[in-house]
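Please describe what follows:
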Amino acid sequence: MKDLHALEIALKNFIFTLNEFYLSHNNLKSYHTLSYFLNNLLFNMTSFDALDFTAYVNKRISFYQYDYFDDYDKKTMIMDISGIKFYVERILEEPGLETLFVLRFSVKIMDREYALPLIRYAFDENSAYHIFAIQFG
């Protein structure tokens, strides 16, 4: 371990950030204990992340602090092409899944609406966009 003190600080910041995030979003279920989130942290780690665990924890902290799609908390039309309307809505993912946020896209053709694949994503402190999955949910 490069610097045990830096890791201790990062883990404390991670716990603080979890508390702040879920208290502000009112979305933390009672069964989500600290061990649940620490397990999730480890399960999402790659072998590259393991090379510098402190940097990895800090990157995961930044996922809770940065989101540039908060304007889409409500279903929002983003495009209209000849009467075909495209919508997006940002939703808070259930804690412990791949990411914190999901973009849910849909298209409305005439009076029928069709779901498009979900995009599970996160931003880090460098404004890097991390796509975890594109799939139907």
Q: What stands out?
A: The two ends are 39 Å apart (CA to CA).
